[in-house]
Input
Amino acid sequence: MEQEVQGEKPVENENKKKLTPLQKRVITAVCYVVVLIAMCALKWCVPQGNVAGGWGSIGFDIVFTAISVIGAYEFLRAIDRSESGINCKISMPQHAITIAFCAMAVPLFALVEMAMEGGLLAMTCAFTVYVMFLASTSVFDHRRSSVKGTIYCIFCMLYCGVLSTLLSAINHLGTNSMAAILVVFLCPVLTDVGAFVIGSSLKKFVPLKLAPQLSPNKTVIGAVGGIIGGVLASIIVYYMMYLLGGINGEIFYTGFNGVDLTVRSETFPALLSFILVGLVTSFMAQIGDLFESAIKRECGVKDMGNLLPGHGGVLDRFDSMLYCGVVVFISFGVII
Output
């Protein structure tokens, strides 16, 4: 009996030390907020000088590079799994070329953009060259690769590398880059929160599913709640910029660098512009999340990785942000 009791105690102690999924999500979310605040502080406080976006923008560039590289690794690993049923061949050189492009896309853009403001052109040229390398490996090493695998690698470069570079492009906008970055980070988060809160509260009354084949738990009413959350995020960002920096050069507080908001549109008032951006961005955030679910279902995996406790992999957490980046980049370049 004593041996049995002694054998049970370590199990009890081990169970007590384990964190619940909710606790893991909370810890990861706190780390997310701390990193965001640190990157914003660096971007705000480092003098901009004559460099597009300012040297303080490098902190965000490091984050976007990590999203690109780790996301590409997670994507290729999911494709490679034999149980996925995708049945395509990707050779080791193709793996290396794909990861290499995703590793250099954001730094190349940032360095060229800060030097001569031609970052997107440089990244586009690099993407073309890497695609040609991928095609060459498929031709000369066809036994260990396939056309289908090559197409997946090209898509990975677009999905992880190019979309992450657009996030860096937002980071280096000549005007309103701080506001745009905050929309990119806050909109997906409050979209998730709004979808969860309103969806879980009202799904009994409006049980219509949004995309039952991809994500059975998502409802139409939850999607509406997500859009409300995204719009709320954009409104919060607008008033943060208004209180900290002012509008069109009317500075209320000059302690930070580049916080003021420059509104170019004569058609839409500034607040309405932010509301419209938040609405479309929130919609695209949910599309990005559903598309990631489609990729995981196609690959036969539950999560793309386990790097972020309680959230899965990098692509599981930042899939919405990659889609949001396209909308925010276009919106802040045309509307605001």
Q: What stands out?
A: The longest strand covers residues 215-219. Residues 1-5 have pLDDT under 50 and may be disordered. The first helix runs from residue 2 to 17. The beta strands are 209-211, 215-219.
